[in-house]
Amino acid sequence: MAKKREVQVNAVSRYEKSSGRLVLEEYSSCEVPAGCGGAILRWIDPQEALPLHLWGWTTGGADFFFDGAPFTSSRVDARAGRHVLALSVRPKDGLPPQLALALRYSDDGPEGTVEPDRSRSIGRKVEVLSGAGAVMLGSTTPPKGEGWREPGFDDSGWQPLVRMKAATKDPEKNWHLEQVLKTGARVIGLPGQTGPLWVRCTFDIALGGAP
């Protein structure tokens, strides 16, 4: 009679997945419904693309674009090469068109913000910050077509945006702006402008070798 196999208890470590090239991100939540939690796991290849996070504030409505495509979430994967962050601002309530933007990646998020847990350091940092290093150009004339959203567009006639004091109806309650400013971005605009504003920011990403 064959002997019965000894009972063995499975260990979670048997199913642990790891990679010397990929990085595992974990987004967790313990919000609603009460008593429930969850996690989203996502593999990223830092030699292929970096996950950039967008923080943005504007006076009024705005449409955001990355390399010509509308943003569908606050995160975008950026490959090596030249990129364009573009937006159109539609001011309201008599406020001038202003914005504060940060498109960034680092192993550690800005203080007061949340970054996913990562299985290891990527060892790279990308920061595109309005009023703090990034050159952002604006036009008060509506561009023709959609080419202004894309790399290669001739924006030589556009004007550099400059740092300004935030125009807001209630500065004490503008928590959204405060969150964006924590990234290091600053409020910018064109002095004397009151109507719509179209904005472009061109930057390069070099992924380099493996971290």
Keywords:
211 residues; 6-stranded antiparallel beta sheet; globular; Jelly Rolls; mainly beta; 1 helix
Explain this structure.
With 211 residues, the chain is mainly beta. It has a single domain (49-205), classed as Jelly Rolls. Helix content is 3%, strand content 36%. It contains one helix and 15 strands. The chain has one helix at residues 175-181; strands at 23-29, 38-44, 50-58, 61-66, 69-70, 75-78, 81-90, 98-105, 117-118, 126-129, 137-139, 159-160, 162-163, 188-189, 197-205. The strands form three sheets. Strands 3, 6, 8, 10, 13 and 14 form a six-stranded antiparallel sheet that branches.
Tally of DSSP helical segments: 1
Strands, total number = 15
Describe the main β-sheet briefly. Answer: 6 strands, antiparallel
Quaternary class: single chain
Helix fraction by DSSP (H/I, runs of at least 4): under 10%
What's the architecture in CATH terms?
Sandwich
Strand content: 35-45%
Shape: globular
List the helices and strands and how they pair.
Layout: E1 23-29, E2 38-44, E3 50-58, E4 61-66, E5 69-70, E6 75-78, E7 81-90, E8 98-105, E9 117-118, E10 126-129, E11 137-139, E12 159-160, E13 162-163, H1 175-181, E14 188-189, E15 197-205
